Amino acid sequence: MNSLAKSHRRKIQVEKALRHKVLAALPEELSVLESLTVGPAGARDYRQRYNTFQEWADQATTKIDWKDAEVVTTILLAYFDHLMIDLKRPPDDGIKLVAAIGYFHPSYHRSTRTGALKRVGRALKGWTKVMPSETLVPWPFMAVAAVCNQMMSRRKPRMALTTLLATNAYLRPGVASGLKRHNLVPPAATTGRFSHWALRIHILDADEQPSKVGVYDDCIPLDSPDKQWMSPLLGRLCKTLGANQDLMTESMADWSKEWQRSLGSLGLPTAHLYMLRHIGPSDDIASKRRSAKQVVDRGQWVVPSTAKRYEKSALSQAFLNKCQPALVAHMKACERQLPQIMAGHLLPLVYRRV
Predict the structure, then answer these.
(1) Over the stretch 262-284, which tens digit does the pLDDT of each residue have?
(2) Would you call 305 exposed, middle or buried from its count of C-beta atoms within 10 A (0-12, 13-18, 19+)?
(3) How far is it, in rounded angstroms, from Cα 27 to Cα 30?
(4) What ranges do the domains of the chain cover?
(5) What is the full DSSP assignment across 297-327?
(6) Which of 29, 168, 222, 344 could in theory staple to 197 by disulfide, Cβ–Cβ 3.0 to 4.6 A?
(7) What is the rounded CA–CA span in Å between residue 88 and residue 284?
């Protein structure tokens, strides 16, 4: 318990220092502990959105009186009209700004339904109706296999393995790129529930950041029956690494560049690495490997309805119909032969765009 308490105190000190460095001059009503409810990256994003709104308000009207909810509402509604009509921005911009305001001014936290900003909530609803969010089309797993094949052809096996782990465990790119040896838990038995590798992420004792929803020590079993060929690869890699060594030698920026380069080589459209977090659950539901509830639990999603987007397997089918037949054949071959390619028993497959 002593080591746990020390680790927790150290984390609080680090977070406090980051908050003062990143956010400097917090509003008086926001305490340090309240500021710790959001990680450094989220706090920076909130600060940028908050400042942009304030600068616009200073130019368009008068200085915002944050204690007057009616004034705040009026200015926000005008700003939302500006974002949607003049800048053609999506409603997500408005949603994140409201979250930022609720962060810096706790009295407005979650106030768009029953609180002081009900009219702002109505405006967001109208904005969403006019500009509905585009449905992300998760690609089939064979696309990931083809990308990993490309990475193997460029002698980046650890990057390819990280890509597979991100897909299999529904990891956010930032989490996947930061994986270390100590995040991998080897099997504890030859059969049964403890016979698979597992990921332990957001480890409190290792001074890692909590998850997006503020949870430490998430555990994700790598128990997909059709991915057990990854186990020897993980075992072999872990034997060469120290506990605090990174699984992937490259940075997240390098990973993103290689990901985009591989997509371009295959003729696939540009996509963010976040696509991997969508491909995994979509593939699991389409193959009936996991139920919708199991997918939600595995992905640590707070809202159960999130899984609904992954039940539309016809969208993945439509994506394949748009691909060249030669590309589809190549992706299928990569998926079929990826275990041997990753193990070094086969050379990566060659694809030449038509």
Answers:
(1) 999 999 999 999 999 989 998 99
(2) exposed
(3) 6
(4) 19-130, 141-181+221-342
(5) HHTT-SSGGGGGGGG-HHHHHHHHHHS-HHH
(6) 222
(7) 35
